[in-house]
Amino acid sequence: MLTIGRVPTDIKTLVFAGICATSALTFLFLFAFGWDALTPTQYGLLYNKITKKYDDKIYEAGRHYVGVYRHFVPFPKTLVTIEFSHNRGATALPLETRTREGLALELELSFQYQLNKTTIPSLNAEFLTDYQDTFVRVARESVLQTASGYIATAWFSMRGDIATHMLTALNADLSIVENAIELTQIEQQNIKKSQFLQNATLVRALTNQTNFEAAANITMINANATAECIYWQNVAKMAALNYTQTAVAVAYAALKSAFNFSAAQLVEYLTIKAVKLHNTTRIVLSVDSNASSSSVSSSSSSSSLSSSPSSASIPRSALRRIQHEPESESESDVEPTSSLFLRLASRSNSSAVPRASSSPSSAAASAA
Predict the structure, then answer these.
(1) Which residues make Cβ contacts (< 8 Å) with residue 32, sequence separation at least 6?
(2) Eight-class DSSP state of 291
(3) Is there a contact between 117 and 109 (Cβ–Cβ < 8 Å)?
(4) Per-residue confidence at 207, pLDDT binned at 50, 70, 90?
């Protein structure tokens, strides 16, 4: 008697044993009923009962494992006799026709044929298992057509020649049938070849389409990456410019606060500094339009122009020109290479021109 603790183990064992027994019986059934045989005088083609199709492989005599749902369709390997007579077992009744002069004629004859192994698949594809009926029909028409071309007396004196003529004509007619079968098989192969070529072309077209789509995606990704890179570069440049301008603004604000400059004085200071630091040959600046056309030239380059915005007031709309020119050799206290001249148009008679010396008519700038 089984205990309660061993019941689950026994159930698992029984289930496992049942599965094993079922698998073994199924394997034995498939193995036992999956065989088929061909005699030494037969060829065979496999026929699938489920798909209703034949295999193209030709099997020779022997036992072969073909599976449960397939079996062999046999084809004769030896000579097969077709007989037209009243004998028992004959293929058909004697042939009836008339001679060339119209007399009734009854023919009893027989001939043999042998299937070509290589043409069995095409023969089966064209006629299935009714190929012999086709041979009988072709033979009847060929023999009757040949027999009706002789007179009655020839059947007594030329019977051997007539038989040879009938056999030649029959072989020719059967060859036509065989050629037609081969042509049909060739056409079927051409159809399959065209289908394969069509499928290959379709696959190539799909492959090219996939490649083009991949190339387009790559181009789009590269374009987006380039645009994104340019965007972030511009963002970085803009941020750097903002930081720089902010720093410059803070510095100018500190400068303005340190020297107690007004806005105009700060602008004038920056203007003088820019003029001083500029090293080109000529500078043209916009000045006050109310200034007269007279100009004041400095007589000495050793004097310095005051850079203090509190003591120098530069007209905003007067024409200023800073030019490097060679000086006279008589002036020994000036550098021989060049001197800086500042030409200023006076705002008016009462306008004050920035001066670095006590002379009221001249203002000198130092060459930085």
Answers:
(1) none
(2) S
(3) no
(4) very high
Where residue 62 falls (left for φ over 0; alpha for ψ -120 to 50; beta otherwise) is left
Residue 246 has pLDDT above 70, yes or no: yes
Q: Name the band, by pLDDT with cuts 50, 70 and 90, for residue 284.
A: low
| Dihedral (Cα; 26, 28, 34, 38), 10-degree rounding | -170
Q: How far are the Cα atoms of 119, 281, 314, 331 from residue 339, in angstroms, in the given order? A: 115, 11, 21, 11
Which string of DSSP letters, residue by residue, matches 68-86?
TTEEEEEEE-S-EEEEESS
326-347 per-position pLDDT tens digit: 434 333 343 333 333 333 333 3
Model confidence over 153-168: pLDDT tens digits? 998 899 889 999 999 9
Q: Tokens in use for 271?
A: 């203007």
3-state secondary structure of 306: coil
Q: Find where tokens 């009926």 sit.
A: 133
DSSP calls for 144-185: HHHHTTS-TTHHHHSHHHHHHHHHHHHHHHHHHHHHHHHHHH
Query: Do 313 and 267 meet the contact criterion of CB atoms below 8 Å apart?
Result: no
Task: Kindly give, in sequence order, each residue whose CB lies less than 8 Å from that of residue 58, ignoring residues fewer than 6 positions away.
Answer: 43, 44, 45, 117, 120, 121
